[in-house]
Design brief:
The complex is a heterodimer of chains A (111) and B (115). By secondary structure, chain A is an all-beta fold. Chain A has strands at residues 9-13, 18-23, 32-38, 45-50, 53-56, 61-64, 70-75, 84-91, 105-110. Chain A is globular and about 40 Å long. Chain B is mainly β and 115 residues long. Helix content of chain B is 0%, strand content 49%. The chains are: A mainly beta (111), B mainly beta (115).
Chain lengths: 111, 115
């Protein structure tokens, strides 16, 4: 599975847009990019998944450039409740059942 | 609440004792996964089941660990002769596969402390 690299931590203020970039230089043709969110003392929660270009749901947007060697999770107008760890995962969704998590990005949102 | 549930939420045990954790997945989900998470790290895959069949086990799952999913419903994870290094959060997740989306739904975890 492709290894991912993302910042260890990020700080933001309420109401700002936060962009977390993940690098995955060795992504394979069949790999999808998935982001999970984890609050303290809880299990991770699926946020968004994409293969190329842009994907948007009610929570976030995922931007994937043409070469797919990186991706950016965009959280619009964050609130204090968005303080969490965000994990970027890469794998072939159709035949990969185990999720391989890195250390994630710890986002701290300040008032 | 129809999410994934785990029991107990916390377990404190002495080194050398056996412990067993239970996971109840979302009812229609045929896949069930176990992960372990230590402080400051992301979850690490341990094993997964499709229905009652255990399809993959990580090298992290030593012979002191055993997981079962009888009848393809709930699952148990047993750790025999616990060691202090087993202290971690044990997470269970379940999923049902549609198309290419592999969304796993996680439970709240069982925090194990081995003294």
């Amino acid at each position: 599975l492709a290894k991912t690299t993302q910042p260890i931590s990020m700080d933001s203020y309420e109401g700002q847009e936060v962009n977390i970039t993940c690098s995955h230089n060795n992504i394979a043709t069949n790999d999808y990019i998935t982001w999970y969110q984890q609050f303290p003392s809880q299990g991770p929660r699926f946020i968004i998944q994409g293969y190329k270009t842009k994907v948007t749901n009610e929570v976030a947007s995922l931007f994937i450039p043409a070469d797919r060697k990186s991706s950016t999770l965009s959280l619009p107008r964050v609130s204090l409740s968005d303080t969490a760890v965000y994990y970027c995962l890469v794998g072939a969704s159709y035949n990969t059942d185990k999720l391989i998590f890195g250390t994630g990005t710890r986002l701290q949102v300040f008032p | 609440d129809t999410g994934v549930s785990q029991d107990p939420r916390h377990k404190i045990t002495k080194r050398g004792q056996n412990v067993t954790f239970r996971c109840d997945p979302i009812s229609e989900h045929n896949r069930l996964y176990w992960y372990r998470q230590t402080l400051g790290q992301g979850p690490e895959f341990l094993t997964y089941f499709q229905n009652e069949a255990q399809l993959e086990k990580s090298r992290l799952l030593s012979d002191r660990f055993s997981a079962e999913r009888p009848k393809g419903s709930f699952s148990t994870l047993e750790i025999q002769r616990t060691e202090q290094g087993d202290s971690a959060m044990y997470l269970c997740a379940s999923s049902i596969r549609f198309d290419a989306v592999n969304e796993q739904f996680f439970g709240p975890g069982t925090r194990l402390t081995v003294l």
